[in-house]
Amino acid sequence: MDEKTSELRDIFVETTGSETVTERQAESRGTLTDRDEAAVDERVRELVAAMRERYDFSTDLGDETYARIARGRFEEEDDEAIATALVEEREGDEEREGDEAETESEVAPVLEPSTVRDARLDLHLVREADREVDDDAFEYGDLKQLTAEGRSIVECADALDADPDTVAKYARIARVDLTSTRANDRFRDEFRDLLTDAEIEGSHAETARDDGLEAATEDMETDTNL
């Protein structure tokens, strides 16, 4: 506990005569990760099924594999790592359950990262890295705006003075972002909320699990500055 936090704590105790908030915050630490994993898995599968019914999926992977890819989006570094994890998981299932697993598993013996990427985008799970244009050939935001206007790849390429193949690569990401936005990002957001400790993409679980006193005294610090 640093000096400033200690002072704030003392002010709180002197004002209220109690350390109840601090105690309650301490008790609640870690609740973000105290979840029913079976219920989470079921809800993820329900979301996948709802999206399959609403949108055209671009791969022949089953719902169970899509659900695993959704989880992998938040657990693995990239699509290659997701593909590797899925194959290893299948191999582990086969070792534990025998030949029966071979007929039940939807994960192919070899799963290409490009297929994982296609499935991930079907689920509106865009990574920030997907939006990083190679060699800064153009601004992703500009392409997204042109795509929203209904411009073709060729028209976008002309407007951006860029290679059509490069434009096509990122136009797909733009279309996914736009489709997600039209759905109020509800699928993306629910996957994120179910499968991470972060309320906002890119934040870290440790932020939510910081010392409870710091969160409890945030408003008090504002008053103190006044």
Average pLDDT, rounded to a whole number, is 78
C-alpha Rg (nearest Å): 23 Å
Q: What would you call the shape?
A: globular
- Structural class by sheet pairing and helices: mainly alpha
Low-confidence stretches: 18-33, 198-226
Helix-strand topology string: HHHHHHHHHHHHHH
- How would a textbook summarize the main sheet? none
What's the helix count?
14
Q: What portion of residues is helical? A: 55-70%
Q: How many distinct domains?
A: 2
Beginning-to-end CA distance, first to last residue: 23 Å
The tally of strands reads: 0
Protein name: Conditioned medium-induced protein 4
Write up what this structure looks like.
The chain is 67% helix and 0% strand. The chain has two domains: 31-124 and 191-201, no CATH class; 126-182, no CATH class. Mean pLDDT is 78; it is low at 18-33 and 198-226. The protein is globular. Helix 9 (153-160) packs across helix 10. With 226 residues, the chain is mainly alpha-helical.
Short description:
With 226 residues, the chain is mainly alpha-helical.
Question: How are the SSEs ordered, and which strands pair?
Answer:
Blueprint: H1 3-16, H2 20-28, H3 37-54, H4 63-75, H5 79-97, H6 100-104, H7 113-122, H8 140-148, H9 153-160, H10 164-182, H11 186-195, H12 205-208, H13 212-216, H14 218-225
Helix pairs in contact: 3-4, 3-11, 4-5, 5-7, 8-10, 9-10
